[in-house]
Design goal:
The relative contact order is 0.10. The radius of gyration is 17 Å and the shape is globular. The chain folds into two domains: about 120 residues, Cyclin A, domain 1; about 30 residues, no CATH class. The protein is built from seven helices and two strands; from the N terminus they run ααααααββα. It has about 170 residues and is mainly α.
Length: about 170
């Protein structure tokens, strides 16, 4: 068995909850999205499992799984038909067996708990990180700049501070 990435580690008492939620997210991702969405879903579920107390202890696993998928689709433009892959709210609701208002509310809760935004590089698809200038804007001496145009030394400092996803001069980490 492969060693788990830290982003997927969960406390022992939360393992069964995590496995149930992730199983549903993986199943949905295989059918309607892709493996990158599934990976982000596993990371989100694990992060929620590690919160004290974990919000996943209240509510059903289908509701949380649907909320996580909804949150990820929201910040990754996954509801836009022009995007590949994409889905729609009705498909999520039907798959997870939950109402539109429930999945939307749970998705909003997930986004709030995990501080998910369209420019949060830890929660968006890699191609969007590469395409989006918002993931790369940093403040240097009071000026907003695109870190990709800065010297490597500045990129290294920004990366160490968690301000950018990787050092562009060196490629993806």
């Amino acid at each position: 068995m492969a060693k788990k990435d830290y982003s997927e580690k969960v406390p022992g008492p939360m393992q069964a909850v995590y496995d149930e939620i992730v199983g549903r997210i993986d199943e949905f991702s295989r059918a309607y999205l892709d493996s990158e969405y599934a990976g982000l879903g596993r990371k989100a579920a694990a992060t929620l499992c590690r919160k004290r107390p974990s919000p996943l202890l209240s509510g059903g696993s289908n509701t949380w799984a649907g909320g996580i998928v909804h949150a990820l689709c929201t910040v990754n433009f996954g509801f836009d038909k022009a995007e590949k892959p994409h889905t729609d709210l009705s498909t999520i609701c039907e798959f997870f067996g939950i109402a539109k208002s429930t999945v939307a509310a749970k998705g909003k809760k997930v986004r709030e708990l995990l501080k998910m935004k369209h420019y949060s590089f830890e929660w968006i698809l890699q191609r969007l990180v590469d395409e989006s200038s918002m993931c790369w804007i940093i403040s240097v001496n009071g000026y907003l700049v695109d870190a990709r145009s800065m010297p490597v030394e500045v990129q290294e400092i920004a990366f160490e501070k968690g301000l950018i996803p990787y050092i562009p001069a060196e490629g993806r980490v």
